[in-house]
Amino acid sequence: MTDNKTKRVSAEQQIPTIIAEMRAAAAAFQKIGLGVSIFGSARIPRDHPFYAQGMELGARIAQLGLPVIAGGGPGLMEAANRGAFEAGGRSVGLNIRLPREKTDNPYQTDSLQFEYFNSRKASFFMHSLAYVVLPGGFGTLDELFEAITLVQTMKQPPAPIILVGKAFWSGLMEWVRDQLLTHGMIGPFDLDMLLVTDDLDEVVRLIQEAAQIEQQREPALPT
Description:
Helix 1 (11-32) packs parallel to helix 4 and helix 2 runs parallel beside helix 3 (75-86). A 7-stranded parallel β-sheet has the order 4-3-2-1-5-6-7, sandwiched between helices. It is of the alpha/beta class. The radius of gyration is 17 Å and the shape is globular. It is 48% helix and 15% strand. Strand 6 (161-164), helix 6 and strand 7 form a beta-alpha-beta unit. Its EC number is 3.2.2.n1.
């Protein structure tokens, strides 16, 4: 058994911080507007082809006039932020302190700080009109499947969920079809929520279409 010295913090202790973090993010995004969330591994080095692809993607989204929202850490999060930042766009980092991620990347026009994943993930999904998923590990998979679940259950409006990298994602998609779909754990049309592509032109086109649809969407009535 590993020696895990993490102390349990009660829900009662966590909740005030979680609420405060979500409120701070909501206030910030009132000024920033809806953006495009880009998820991906923190462990990809700067000389990797995935990093160059993340930078290009961030730059191209910024050139559409849309904010890029990434995790604020290193790797592909940094690549997305950097691409947007160096293109002169809005580059938002949702930063969280982790053992492997002790500093925020420097390519952020707007930096939000989080203690908890609960509030950080909610802030991604409440303020995005599209989700782009670059190669990544458990954290990226967590974000991917939460995006799918929120759109599938209509807790969030329909939005493009785009997986970039056919070679990387093909095994996962084959498992989803062979296991989840075959056993009736998802519906036959649920896979239509996802696009797997290597074509950044296609990614940009879908994001642009989503932005146009969002402009036409009726604002939600206050409750």
